[in-house]
Fold:
Amino acid sequence: MRVERIALSGFRNYDEETVTFEPAVNVICGPNAQGKTNLLEAVYLLTGAHSFRTRFDRELIGFDCAWASILADVEAAGRSQTVRLLFQKGQRRQVTVNGAKRTSAALAGVMTAVLFCPDDLHLVKEGAAARRRLMDNAISQLRPGYAALLADYNKLYENKTRILKDWREKPSLLAALDEFSDGLARCSARMIRYRASFAERLAEAAAPIHREFSGGKEALSLTYRTVSTVTDPRAPAEDIYAQVAAHQAAHRQAELEAGQCLTGVHKDDLDIALNGVTARSFASQGQARTAALSIKLAEREIFRAETGEYPVLLLDDVLSELDGARQEFVLNRIGGGQTLITCCEDEDISRRTGGRVFAVKEGRIR
Structure:
């Protein structure tokens, strides 16, 4: 699986630029704020038309531009396809694959990618939102229906939250509250099954990687946490729905008083433990980074097991924040697939990886 060529028009700080990547390691170097991360963002958008940096399409469009375009030739499972993403101010994004219109979710069947950026180094110590984002981004690529389900949940959540905030001024809003609660419970039931399955696979893949990474000194475990009334997150969706609905009913008055949605999968977490102790509270900075690296590398292995080939690996300026031993561990495990690495200086990384070097300066690539 790889991106053979990508052409950017009006995207971020790229006016008109085209680059052809190597099938193995590609080192993208240059000073800060020149467009290196923008290039990785464009590649990541090919997996589902969603950025890892912003929620708003308008921020992807360059200054003084009315639209932005990403055109890419990608190869997966021995098949080449052409993907085009068009972002226009005030309009819905357009996605085409080989000239035919597609939904953003449909891109999951075209290409997969695993991203590792500096924020991921804090995955263990951050709040639950970071770990939910990890699960959601990965599952959305592996299961096209999940991305649509997540979008539905977010819309229902926003509507219910608006009711809970405004019902005192507009009591008539309460008439729709139970309908939105029921919709959230049904979405939650399906999302819980997806997340529980992925968390189980992630735990199985990450444990041996971390054991090797720590020299056999630490055991990494991952446990999925969801609505407390759910006794088995792998149970049939109807059973989970009933348990989530019961939790909602028990908290209905509390939600009205608090003015916010207190129950649902928007509060899920992935508990990370080292040697049986919660890592968020007790892990050192070095231990937390090692655990985060192990989890991201495990994500790559899951994608390989699912698709039969490695996903595109995107490493955004993370090596500079790692010590020598961790750098070597990562670099020794990136073989077998296409990798794009951004950095400020190329000499050392290109020598250690044998990768082709692309220099980026002011939105130009050479």
Summary: The domain at 121-310 is CATH 1.20.1050.90 (Glutathione S-transferase Yfyf (Class Pi); Chain A, domain 2). The radius of gyration is 22 Å. The chain has two domains: 1-112+315-366, 121-310. The longest helix spans residues 177-213.
